[in-house]
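Chain A, query sequence.
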Amino acid sequence: MKLFILLPRIPYPLEKGDKLRAYHQIKQLSKHNEIVLCALNDDPKVNEQEAFQALQPYCASINFLPLRKTRILFGLVRAFFKGLPLQCGYFYNRKNAKKVDSLIEKHQPDMLFGQLLRVAEYIRYKTIPKTIDYQDVFSYGMKRRADIASFVTRPIFNMEYRRLRRYEAAIFDDFDVRTIISEPDRQLFPHPDKDQILIIPNGVDHDFFKPQEREKKYDLVFTGNMSYAPNVNAVEYLAEEILPHVWKQLPEVKMYIAGASPDPRVKKAACDRIIVSGWLDDIRDAYAQSKVFIAPMRIGTGLQNKLLEAMSMRLPAITSPLANASLGAIPNQEILIGNNAEEMAQNIITLLTDTAKAEQIAQAGYDFTNRVYDWGKATAIMEKAMIVRS
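Chain A, predicted structure.
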């Protein structure tokens, strides 16, 4: 089968969840299919040559289409007046649409694959069989952001929430195969036939993210794209509400915040006991040098890759009910759950002072991720559905 894969970002380097998912799906799909890759690029700092080299082993054709600032602005204005989500307007422009059309005409694929609703406008009306990876329920993630937004920005988030909700449902029937990361996300999806959406979880590269014996420089670690709103919110939650409770009992505890493009609010949290690293060439260093992983997510949707990576490296992990709803680990056996700042803090204290408990959670979490999360198995489910519909 020849697959035309359209992405909103170049899937390399792997510092964001959608890039990670796309990269590993391409890698798996390339084993039995011919891949024609088309990726939009709004980031001038991305080294396209390095990305090309990383993707070349898996793709018969690689095409990067720039998203210029002027066209992004025009797209946002167009989307606003057409009633479309601003996210669609950001990623769509007619010049790139013509290039996408030309590539599809040239390669004559058997199946079109679009990652995220951000690219749906490019392919939703094509007569070729189509797959859309919703990945998360964007509308509900926007609603959660609106709920904690300031008085000034809340109307914007609410507007985008309503538009996303309409759009998610509107494009449902335009695609032959629809996928999403988790059952909780599928249940939140705004369409009566949502049960037709395939659950395709993320995986983790267990050969790459494996336990390492290293000196522990930090007590706690949190990783991710540090310009992403849910991660920024989690850092503020840690710095302002959770860690002060921990420091009352364990004043020497050090927290490591590791990840690309830290937002000014993340940088503001830095102090002698909270280290903010920014980009790391190898994120495994952050995990290996830390004792406990914590992801206190309060907003956002979908499966947290950071949890999979940390648990695969055999770190005991703490998270929120929101994040674990998608992960599916057994509370107090494979992971610890905190419903509020006090519970998060107590979980931290427990894992840092009770060696036996920390060891039990680390081993059980490691066994869980190795048993349940595998890129090959997950992608094979999607591939089978695409073959049937192509």
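The first strand starts at residue 2 and ends at 7. The mean pLDDT is 96.
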